[in-house]
Amino acid sequence: MTDPSVNYQGLTPEEVYQTLATRQSGLYNEEVAKRQTQFGKNLLESKKQESKWLRFLKNFTSLMAILLWIGGLVAILSGTVELGIAIWLVNVINGVFSFIQENRAQKATEALKNMLPSYARVVRDGIEQKILAEDLVPGDILLIEEGDKISADARIILSTDLQVNQSALTGESNPVRKNARLVTDSDVTALEADNLVFAGTTVANGSA
Q1: Which residues of 29-44 are buried (b: 16+ CB within 10 A; e: fewer)?
Q2: What angle do CA 190, 19, 119 make, to 5 degrees?
Q3: For 4-55, what is each residue's pLDDT tens digit?
Q4: Could you say which of 32, 51, 109, 120 is the most buried, measured as most Cβ atoms within 10 Å of its Cβ?
């Protein structure tokens, strides 16, 4: 799926084909080559890691943090020492909390990278093929079955008794039933949609 603004769960399988310019028999090799050039590899972006100390200090040097340091200093100089110390403490607590959240998010991203499979099964030119997962492109027809790790975010277009373990994303250990039916409720988020599957999750039962 290429455009996060598209409500894929609210599309019929036929509309999914049209939106992603694909078909039941899969993409042609020429189309695959063009899309690989356009979209690049199916990989999570890796950024150069900053040191933990630098990332920690950045939480105390943002514009808002600097304003709070100054506000606390002004309060102390004006004679309200308790207020100034309280403002500084809020700044420290906020900075520490932000660093912890950022660190958790980074660890979650690294864990998800390790969970992504090396290979994927797709239909291209009407033929089932085994390819490197990093070579998947938007519009590929992905085949999944029990025991598979899912290689990319995708909209289900056909399924048989499919259940997916999404604990890597939600922490919920019980498998979630999935199907190809469109979701008409606009309040349902992508993660809650029964017709979407996500990279890094595992097929617990069935196929699609």
Answers
A1: eebbeebeeeeeebee
A2: 70
A3: 778 999 999 999 999 999 999 999 999 999 999 999 998 876 666 677 788 8
A4: 120
